[in-house]
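Here we describe the complex-level prediction in full. Unlike the single-chain runs in Section 2.1, the two entities below were treated as one system.
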Amino acid sequence: MTTTTNAPPPMPATTSGAHARALPRRVATAVGAQNTSLIGALIVVVGTFAWLDDGYLTTANMTVIGDTVAVTGLLAVVQTVVIICGALDISVGSQAGIASVVSAMAFTSTDGNAALGILAAIGVGIAAGVVNGVVIVYGRVNPVIATLATLAAYKGVAQLLAGGRAQGYVLGDDFFIFVARGKILGLSVQIWTLFVVAVAVHILLKYTDIGRNIYAIGGNDTAARLAGININKYLVAVYALAGVVAAIAGVILTARTGSGQPTSGSEGLELKAITAAALGGCALKGGKGGIGGTLLAVFLLGALENGLNVVGVNSFWQNVAQGALLVVAVVIQQRRNGERAVGLPT
Amino acid sequence: MTKSPPLDLPGPALAVENIHKDFAGVHALRGITLDFPRGTVTALMGENGAGKSTLIRIINGDHRPGDGRVLVAGTPRELHSPADARRHGIRVIAQEPEIVPHVSVAENVYIGALPRKAGRVLDRSALYRRMRSDLERLGFAHAIAPEALGSQLSPAQRQLVEILRALTTEAAVLAFDEPTSSLSEHEVEALFDLIRRLRDQGLAIIYVSHRMQEIFRLADRIAVLRDGELAGVRDASQADEGEVVRLMVGRDLSTLFARGRSAGDRVVLDVRDLTTEHVSNVCLEVHEGEVVALAGLVGAGRSELAAALVGDLPIRSGEVRVEGRPLRLRIPRDAVRAGIGYAPEERKAQALFMTGSVRHNISVAVLDRLRRFRFVSSRRERRLAHEFVDRLEVRTPSIDHEVRKLSGGNQQKVVLARWLARRPKILILDEPTRGIDIGAKAEIYRLVDELAGAGVAILVISSELPEVLGLADRIVVMQNGRITGELDRADADEEGILALAMAYDLAEPTQGNPS
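The structure predicted for the assembly as a whole is:
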């Protein structure tokens, strides 16, 4: 064993032919097994519904799908970051609800200043996220319990602020109209928002030291701490980021409906966000996952939901399907990890 | 508890014949034929990867042999599971036993066969009575309290629970897989007494260990595996260490420790009157280029001292200075920034990102030096990883290989590479060679010597006395959270260290020790 060397033997020139043959496999490796199967599933879903209904694969319907996934997608993208840390944020939907109400109320009380409305929403998002992070890190509350509590509490705050009904009216404002109905290069502003946020978060995760430290924390928090990462600071910051992105989603909700919505539109989004992240390949114990997989899963879920609507499946069944999908996604993940079937899962 | 197995049955208690085992095309075992007679301690030796653990797993029913057979008392048996093996009287003592944390030791031992009264009510007093009398008989009366909770046990006590469990069943063969790696010297002595007594009762004992001295103190026969084959079987009374090492690696033990340095005068790490929850009034200096070993029994507070020095356990009073500057240690980040590198005791749980690549594991503590704006330069990172993989001779197919697929020795080198990449002033190494093979050990010793030669102040915690004596310039001994003495390399020997490690109150209850 003392004579083994590390240097691989130089590659002989004759293997270039083998390289060319292996190209599809190399592409598949680069995309990843998880993403390849998601793309496959997406093709199957779209193909099936296009075959069932002529109206499915039209530009108009694709735009509908795009707009419905924008809000879910934003929350799923930021949920991915939280899950990579090894945590969970169930309260994202409620945070979007507060942000929606606050943006509309700030807008009306400043006599129609859209910028102030958005700033107020983002400020509230940061505050809500920091509260989550502080409760978890310094209150030592399990992330699921902590954000389950704030899911309820933030929803209550939104309802109190709004007095239980929709607040303000924003569709007199050019900016909100632009967000709701505008298009750039043929794609809606809502989809562009999702892409911009997703690309920014992707770059953050994959190319910066911040992202690498986030993966490290999720991979082994003790090792991350001992390697000199201030994990408390990181966790609070990640929850704050979740708040900011949830606020952006809230502003889109406001623009879409024309008024601040405490609950309608934002309820149940946490389930979709977590389902998308799990389906997209995030390990729920942390350290693994990426934005690419999550986005694919978001589109898959959107295409599926829209297709079921188009062919007229009862929406109650859709809830059943969504819950089942989350369980199936996690079961597949655990099987792949070779998790042993003993006691409570880790 | 244990009935003597009848000695008049034909053949050895256990034998393996021509055992082969492949894992995904890798030959783990190639035609092992070996018997384990009654009333005999057979030591199983070999470097990591030699096939010891695979053989033990086959005997325990965890793995099925690819070819060959297992004979229990002369009869071929198919062992499908550990439960199967147990039914045939074979019991393997796990290295890290499963202990139920929130119930008592007695319940942990007799789990599955608890004494009852009035139907299904647990008869607690009968349980404790039974446990006490068993402990008394086995000579462990002071080692463990029947009422202590599973979660309060030290590693040694956890092992003891596992042994007690085995003795409640009718075992004919007992296998120990490196049982002493987490035990202190006097616990080892007690364990050996017990093993000898079990042997004299007629049990066949299989004992797997890396530690040469132990083997010669305990074993009757020594079987050495190398690369999945039986390199030789020797009578312990007729073999010597050199011969066994040559069988294992084909090399001599005396070449393990390198030494080409001398310590400087400048104090780099200066610990003044440090008190934490686990240690009291610790004063300690480590000079530039000096290797100081912290010796002591398991639970003496050495690891807790290290954790306090790197900011991972709160300091109640006292001061830590690096190159004369006092440190404010709130979190490990403070220590990392002050130039302290720390390789903790449990490298898999505390140091490594097991599913991460070698490259990511090496670079994690230096990302702030590899980035431009906030973007990590992939080119510089890869160069750094290559540099340290070459320098430390980490045996990995590539820098993108997952760390969990490397051997223990190579994983430890990756942890060391992480800190060397930061060019630390101080290195704290907690059991740096635990569970790694002799070849990698020698390389780590050489590296420690080289780093000290380059001026790094090194604090090594080790429970292996030969390692302490071979490596350190100065030996500081701790007991019960206090420093009980200091020995210079020139006048240190095993007896001197042990005398300080057990300086007073030997009868101190082991329960509630920091560990």
